[in-house]
Amino acid sequence: YYFKKLNLQRVKINSKQTFQRGIEMAKLGLVMVGGQIFGAIVINSINIFISSSGSVSDLGLYNAGISITTGYVGMIFTAMSVELLPRLSSVSYDNKQISSMVNQQSEILLIVLLPLLVIMIYLAPLMIKILLTDEFSNITLFIRIMALTLIIRVPAFTIGYIPIAKGEKRIFFIYNSFLPGIFAMIFSMLGYYYFNLTGLAFASVLTSFIHFLLLFYKCYHLYGFKFSNKHTYHLFVTLSTLLMAIIVVELLPSSVFFIAFGATLIFLSIYHSYYNLNKLIDIKHTVKSLVSRIRI
């Protein structure tokens, strides 16, 4: 209806122009698909190694733990990716604006994820009982350690969109798919061989950390990308809080201190997120505007 009211002029483009303008986009799409295929190969290779050198039950436990942790916050990463890439592409010529956008998006993710992951660490046994059965209680520590992986993936996730926004297909594939995939296979196989499921969790943390360092190093040298002091502060606070939570729940399970400390930490993390998000996006004003629109 609205489209018909627009006075748009038709632009004629022949097949040669269409090919010339679309070939780069097609190449970029192929690289992204290739990265997903390589990622699937890596995942299947790890699964085959676990089932062949260990047991099918361990494979089931591993995949259940991955499903819970990635599904728990996966929607947030997906929502951010839908918004971030178009915004970066629109300012791909300006490295300063790219750095500012990446820092802001990464900060928001860190702030939002902190209380969610603290809750996941403390309520992991309850989540397993609700979503699975008591037979999967062995993955409790796995899930808690994976919280560190999810946080380290935040800066790597946001930086990873810089090469693709600039059309750097080779860099995107090598540093966002190929090298992390190789490290994931090596560390996961070694981790499982020596430390079972716990080794797989630490392998994921180590892989994510190396992935982050590789991307940061490359983007720093190519595009002058830097993390802001505010981002570094939020990353430090989030990692420290999660480490403290993991240590407490593992050393003092089911104690009075565990309950009191857990409730306090959850409350403080929620307050921290609300306070910092309110400074970035003015939550009260946003909620009021949404309510007023609904009423209308």
Question: Top keywords for this entry?
Answer:
globular, mainly alpha, 11 helices, 296 residues
Residue fraction in strands: under 5%
The residue-averaged pLDDT reads: 89
> What is the number of helices?
11
Task: Characterize the overall form.
Answer: globular
Low-confidence blocks of residues: none
Q: Would you list the SSEs in sequence order as H and E?
A: HHHHHHHHHHH
Helix content: over 70%
Ends distance: 22 Å
Outline the structure in words:
The structure is a single chain. With 296 residues, the chain is mainly α. It is built from 11 helices and no strands. Helix 2 crosses helix 8 (169-223) and helix 4 runs parallel beside helix 9.
What is the secondary structure topology, with strand pairs?
Layout (H helix, E strand, L loop, with lengths): L1 H4 L9 H39 L2 H35 L4 H28 L1 H8 L8 H20 L1 H5 L3 H55 L5 H23 L4 H26 L1 H13 L1
Question: What is the compact description of this entry?
Answer:
The protein is mainly α and 296 residues long.
